[in-house]
Amino acid sequence: MVGLFEMERIQKKGETTPLEQSIATILNEIQAGSEEGMKKALTNLKITGVKEVSDNGLKVVIVSVPYKQIAAYRAIQGFLVPELEKKVENSQVVIVGKRRAFPKEPVRNRRYVAIRPTGRTLRAVNESLLDDVVYPTAIVGKRIHYDLKGGQTTHVILDQHDRTRVEERLAGFALAYNRLTGIRTVFEVADH
């Protein structure tokens, strides 16, 4: 049975999954058990979907939030993600904004020229998802490695100042980003 507060927390058309309901319940529990400033910050925050990805014993829970609320989630992410990881057992939690890429218009069908915003291109959406996955760590470099068979692997280099906090989460970042975009990625921490 889904409570009223859980339904208010989930902003989605159609049926909700049990995982989405459990994350909404956990968010409500965190809101009820936290201090006044955190309660106010968590009051109007919603989720749009939750996915669970697992590979080789590693589980990652990807929480999608509305694009307009990603700044509010980032303000409290340092407190919220560890609390979610305590409640969701043996899982790494990643919060990403729900973004949508507009398709490219074919040249032959351009009767009315509509300009596609730069932020809605596939590349911009993938870059924004990459920033969301590794937030609050800064990305200091990125390389694309092409192998002889035609495949490519993206190497993302993260800031060395966050080494202690991020080092055990690198495999989870790669798993989440691969599931969201389909791009094979390796995350590393800068050496110097």
How would you describe the overall organization of this protein?
The protein is of the alpha/beta class and 192 residues long. The protein has a domain at 1-98: K homology (KH) domain (GMP Synthetase, Chain A, domain 3). Helix content is 40%, strand content 21%. The protein has helices at 4-9, 18-33, 36-42, 70-87, 122-134, 163-166, 170-181, and strands at residues 49-55, 58-65, 92-97, 139-146, 152-158, 185-189. It has a 3-stranded mixed sheet, sandwiched between helices. The chain has a 3-stranded mixed sheet with strand order 4-5-6. A hairpin with a 2-residue loop joins strand 1 and strand 2. The protein is globular, with a radius of gyration of 18 Å. Keywords: Ribonucleoprotein, Ribosomal protein.
What keywords describe this structure?
GMP Synthetase, Chain A, domain 3; three-stranded mixed β-sheet; single chain; about 190 residues; alpha/beta
